[in-house]
């Protein structure tokens, strides 16, 4: 399946970085100890007023007022006790990291997933159909199908070490809680002044540039879309 980040989106956030996690799961807790560990960690972060105050002035909150992180903070611990296990896990990871997550069941997808600006809205769409708002996912979502995509959303690259740690944390707990192998791809723009005569489409770090300490999907310019196969 292809994930595309269109030029219209990058015009709003040219330094955005999106990491896609793909895995197959029946959405049942396979490791209760790991689930309880993550929940305990999330509660500790929720009660840490200094950290939460910092998150509310940084990351997505500094640019997008209506976002799922703020919604989660207002819900408190109730956000960790919903009926959908994956949504609970993503809510916990969001409170711990300050980043937002979107997720989609893709078993029945007939085409790829695109992140675009459409009529002033930043949205995920598939075959022209609106699925969700960027950084403001439906927190009451129910995941049914087994094949899933989770997207870790960042609007800039100012705190790349924290973002990298969040990638690692997300991979760790998705793998442990659901007992699955998680495939991940990082999607971002290098810069707009790179060599535009070489390949402008997304590539597997063909020139040896290694973002965030691991292989990353990159492209040369904001003038073309980011497209990755996952």
Write up this protein.
The chain is α+β, with helices and mostly antiparallel strands and 230 residues long. The chain has one domain (2-229): Phenylalanyl-tRNA Synthetase, Chain B, domain 3, CATH 3.50.40. It is 29% helix and 25% strand. The protein is built from six helices and eleven strands. A five-stranded mixed β-sheet has the order 6-5-4-1-11. A hairpin with a 2-residue loop joins β5 (121-126) and β6 (129-133). α5 packs antiparallel against α6 (160-178). The protein is globular, with a radius of gyration of 17 Å.
Give the overall pLDDT as a whole number.
83
What structural category arises from helix and sheet content? alpha+beta
The third-level CATH topology is: Phenylalanyl-tRNA Synthetase, Chain B, domain 3
Kindly give the count of domains: 1
Q: Please give the oligomerization state of what you see.
A: single chain
Largest sheet: 5 strands, mixed
Gap between N and C termini, in Å? 6 Å
Based on CA inertia axes, which overall geometry fits? globular
Concise summary:
By secondary structure, the protein is α+β, with helices and mostly antiparallel strands. The chain has helices spanning 7-10, 32-47, 49-55, 68-75, 85-97, 160-178, and strands at 2-5, 17-24, 100-105, 113-118, 121-126, 129-133, 147-154, 183-188, 203-204, 217-218, 226-229. It has one domain (2-229): Phenylalanyl-tRNA Synthetase, Chain B, domain 3 (3-Layer(bba) Sandwich).
């Amino acid at each position: 399946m292809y994930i595309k980040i269109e030029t219209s989106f990058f015009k709003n956030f040219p330094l955005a970085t999106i990491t896609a996690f793909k895995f197959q799961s029946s959405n049942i807790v396979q490791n209760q100890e790991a689930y309880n560990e993550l929940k305990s960690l999330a509660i500790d972060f929720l009660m840490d007023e200094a950290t939460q105050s910092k998150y509310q002035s940084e990351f997505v909150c500094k640019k997008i007022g209506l976002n799922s992180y703020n919604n989660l903070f207002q819900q408190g611990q109730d956000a960790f006790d919903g009926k959908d296990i994956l949504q609970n896990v993503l809510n916990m990871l969001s409170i711990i990291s300050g980043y937002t997550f979107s997720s989609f069941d893709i078993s029945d997808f007939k085409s790829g997933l695109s992140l675009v600006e459409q009529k002033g809205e930043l949205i995920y769409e598939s075959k022209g159909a609106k699925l969700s708002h960027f950084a403001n996912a439906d927190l009451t979502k129910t995941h049914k199908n087994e094949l899933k995509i989770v997207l870790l959303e960042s609007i800039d690259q100012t705190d790349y070490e924290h973002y990298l740690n969040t990638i690692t944390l997300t991979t760790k707990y998705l793998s442990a809680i659901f007992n699955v192998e998680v495939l991940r791809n990082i999607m971002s723009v290098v810069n707009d002044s790179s060599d535009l005569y070489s390949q402008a489409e997304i590539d597997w770090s063909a020139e040896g540039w290694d973002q965030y300490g691991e292989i990353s999907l990159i492209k040369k310019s904001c003038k073309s879309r980011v497209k990755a196969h996952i």
